[in-house]
Amino acid sequence: MLRGATAAAPESRATVRDVSTPALVRFPDRTLEAVIEGLLVVDLPEVDGDILRAAASAAAVQAGGMPDLTRVGVRLVGALVVAVCLLPARGHLGRLPAGRRGRLVARLGRFPLVGDYVRLARGLGLVAYYDIVPTS
User: Fold this and answer.
1) Which of 32, 28, 125 is nearest to 78 (CA)?
2) Is 109 helix (H, G, I), strand (E, B) or coil?
3) How far is residue 81's CA from residue 73's CA, in Å, rounded to a whole number?
């Protein structure tokens, strides 16, 4: 035992707070959900659209539990992505068909900050998809 340390009583139990539990979702990020759905449609074209929408929704809920600063950063870059996509989307990213939306966002992935956003969205979407779909 280390010098100065005290031994715990045999009947006490040490507990550790689970730091991986996400925070409560305050405001769902619909932009991220639309981006994730588009990327999933491009990455998994053979999968039913309802399953991909459910995976995108689940991923957006998980992203809503990110730490505050991370969530703010993700939303700011999401706003940048929407601003860049406004012209082809005629004012709203969600109006584009999911496949076209995914191809458009994937092309934006070559830019420095937006590329990280696209990788984050793709990763969250794929993890949510494989959590939803049972493996055979």
Assistant:
1) 32
2) coil
3) 12
